[in-house]
Amino acid sequence: MSANLPAATASPDLARGVSGRGDDAPPVRDVTLRGRRWWREVGWRHVVGVVVIAYCVLPLLYVLSASLNPGGTLTGSNNLFRTLDPANYTELFGTNFGYWLGNSLLVCTVTAIGTVLMGSAAAYAFSRFRFSGRRASLTALLLIQMFPQMLAVVAIFLLLLSLKEVFPVLGTNSHLALIMVYLGGALGVNTFLMYGFFNTVPREIDEAAKIDGASHGQIFWTIILRLVAPILAVVGLLSFVGTYGEFIIAKVVLQDVQKFTLAVGLYQWASDERNAPWGLFAAGAVLAAIPIILLFLFLQRYIVSGLTAGSVKG
Amino acid sequence: MSDQRTAGSTSTGTSTGTSPGSAPGRGSGEMTRRSGGDGGRGRGGLIARRGDSHARNVSPGFLAKLLLVMLVDALGLYGILAAGAVGSWGIVAFLVVALVVVNWVYFSRRAVPAKYLVPGLLLLFVYQIFVMVYTGYVAFTNYGDGHNSTKPDAISAISAQNERRLDGSPSFPVTVVERDDELAFAVERDGVVQVGTPEEPLSAVDGAAADGGRVTDLPGYDVLSFAEIAAQSSQITSMRVPISDDPAEGSLRTQDGSVAYVYSPVLQYDEASDTFTHAETGMVYAPDERGNFVSSTGERLTPGWRVVVGMENFTAMFTDSRVAGPFLQITAWTFAFAFLSVATTFFLGLFLAIVFNDPRVRGLKLYRALMILPYAFPGFLAALVWRGMLNERFGFINEVLLGGADIGWLTDPWLAKLSVLGVNLWLGFPYMFLIATGALQAIPSSVVESARIDGAGPLRIFRSMTLPLLMISVAPLLIASFAFNFNNFTLIYMLTGGGPNFTGSPLLVGSTDILISMVYAVAFESGVKQYGLASAVSILIFIVVGLISWLGFRRTRTLEEL
């Protein structure tokens, strides 16, 4: 489900490389370059850098400027930062945006917690117990996780249609149903990440606890989960970010405007060609992006270190 | 839901409650008896056999488990009853098996690993494995608009939709009544007052007052006044109240809200021969293997029902000229899009990684931080923002950057493809920049140095040393990126919606559609929804994704390290 974060697949060497050496390498500034030689060897790199940064930042500046332009249409948004007026943001509170934000936070939080609980329980079972069918189920999980859930979106829709007659809360147009669908896809995606990390916790720790009389449940809840806390945070946040941006299943499952998630709702605003509330959309997009960007900046270090540690013993 | 401290071997010496004196772990019979009197803990007998008694010393974890399993059992039983009532036997069977498994796993002392796996596996089974198998089944049926339901449903729908007021059919004075905002007809038939709604056939009610065949008062219902009838006349005149559960008996309808006529099905269903017969023309409609009743002249009754049609959906993709053309174009574009996305993002990322892999450049950290921004910005929002910026008439690109040009970035077939790639480049190159930087720095400098000593120029070093070494570590990520972009529905749907659309195709697909967005369009957006065809396309994506992953596995040997 961490679809738009392909970092989940990064291999350990690369991750270590990114985190570690880059900026800490011993500086080679013993010869100071000047003039044409400087331009040829260093200066042009700054030119490339500025061009690339402009390409990176322009759309972000554009949406920020549009969000501060009241009554914004597409045309009106083209003069960057001509007006600075928070009217769009205050106006958002009269719209469905509040519902969407709340729905997204609810669905993503519950999904993230459920993913962490189920994934860690499964990883614990695979890592600490030897039972018949263990290797087969691990292989099966590995195979299943290759197929993204959204490929079966039609069947998911038809399944929820039938479930609606039996359990209306598990049918279409229900947040619980959406969460269950996401959780159904969670085990395959995250178990391996956690399994690798669980394997790095020495078994001697459990054995010592077992000798002291701890049950398997106590070992799991009070010892292992404490020791693997970093990977739990990473998986939870990855799942949160992935669910936040998930679109196709949410679009198929949710039907009432007030039940939409942010992705479905903001799509509806932006895709309205005739009278797109562009200023509102821009303000909503800025608000919707802030938590993810913050999470991402916070996560960046953990993504790298968590993945590295998790995949030491494949 | 996971098991908590159930083994609970900690009870020794802390036993409290009804029998403080008894030592733990005595005969199980005694335990059972005691626990039986211990305040109705239903499972006491079972637990007492474990030696250490939970019955007298219930840990909070065990209580939590007991409550959760009881809750699951209650929900499951409710589900079994509800599913049985609507005849969903598949759901009934699944629930029975699931409940047995859950109860066995959580109340058995063995199966410890299963206690940790069952919740996740159950969800995985329903929402991932089952839906995949179901996709496979639907792909071989004609499920979709016109074939949405089962044969009995189709028979009653055909009977209901083809009704006519026959000459001399009985008529009744009707009273339109209302309860809970639901309209109903009340009539007196054979001296009994009956009420029916479009969902519920006529049934007798007690305590009604009737005057000369017209119902005047009905307990529990509001009788609509003439003005109220006039206000809702269109709704009332389109109402159809079945006379009984048997569609052959016809229905009551009214034109004016005061007199109702019996409408009889023009098409009479005969169960013995499994055919429909037209009451006036005598034409016989027999079921065909495509899920329709068809007359000898080829006239088809709708709706039909879903049947297995074999490979038809698959052959249609390649041979039906109206489907095959768009399908083949979309397939080609899907591969091109995924490949070009990986190639462009990787080479830009690699180029930048090489450019900024030089410690003499000041402000490297700032450059890197700003360059990662597109990666941190949610992808769906980026696609929507670019959609606005690329708008042909009002967008920022045309209006400001190109000084008022009229370039159809999203409306011209080729430019739209270019735009999709450009936006994906913006979204994807920071990730490639990160991994390429990591991979570059992981290449030992001694290798490059020795090449330089051997006389290789910078280009030669890059081509023969750096790039091959880089590819070893980066190739699996490129394969993963290819697989991701192969199904990058969000980008395509949000940026172009698949458009500009092909003309002349019955499917609502266009020149930037990829296979997964074609699935969506065929199943949910085209005028005639075709779940069968959409699932067949899904199956093809499954195959492609499987092949890609297999290629990836061959490189990584993940399977051997489990």
Protein described:
By secondary structure, chain A is mainly α. Chain A has a domain at 96-310: MetI-like fold (Orthogonal Bundle). Chain A has helices at residues 12-19, 21-24, 35-67, 87-92, 97-128, 134-144, 153-166, 175-199, 203-211, 216-227, 229-245, 248-253, 262-270, 278-310. The longest helix of chain A has 33 residues, at 35-67. Residues 1-30 and 304-314 of chain A have low confidence and may be disordered. Chain B is an alpha+beta fold and 562 residues long. Chain B folds into three domains: 28-136, no CATH class; 163-265, Periplasmic binding protein-like II (Beta Barrel); 318-561, MetI-like (MetI-like fold, Orthogonal Bundle), CATH 1.10.3720.10. In chain B, strands 1, 2, 10, 11 and 12 form a five-stranded antiparallel β-sheet that branches. Chain B is elongated. Classes of the chains: A mainly alpha (314), B alpha+beta (562). The interface between A and B is large, with 118 and 118 residues.
Order of helices and strands of chain A: HHHHHHHHHHHHHH
Fraction of residues in β-strands of chain B: 5-15%
Name of the CATH class of the domain at 96-310 in chain A:
Mainly Alpha
Number of helices of chain A: 14
The outline of chain A comes out as: globular
SSE layout and pairings?
The complex is a heterodimer of chains A (about 325) and B (about 550).
Chain A: H1 12-19, H2 21-24, H3 35-67, H4 87-92, H5 97-128, H6 134-144, H7 153-166, H8 175-199, H9 203-211, H10 216-227, H11 229-245, H12 248-253, H13 262-270, H14 278-310
Helix pairs in contact in A: 1-14, 3-14, 5-8, 5-11, 5-13, 8-11, 8-14, 9-10, 11-14, 13-14
Chain B: H1 28-36, H2 44-48, H3 60-86, H4 89-107, H5 112-138, H6 151-161, E1 163-164, E2 171-173, E3 175-179, E4 182-189, E5 192-196, E6 203-204, E7 209-211, E8 214-217, E9 222-223, H7 226-231, H8 233-237, E10 241-242, E11 251-254, E12 259-265, E13 267-270, E14 275-278, E15 284-287, E16 293-295, E17 300-301, H9 312-319, H10 321-355, H11 364-371, H12 373-376, H13 379-389, H14 396-401, H15 413-442, H16 445-453, H17 458-486, H18 489-495, H19 515-525, H20 531-556
Antiparallel strand pairs in B: 1-12, 2-12, 3-4, 3-9, 4-5, 5-6, 7-8, 10-11, 11-12, 13-14, 14-15, 15-16, 16-17
Helix pairs in contact in B: 3-4, 4-5, 5-20, 9-10, 9-20, 10-15, 10-17, 13-18, 15-17, 16-17, 17-20, 19-20
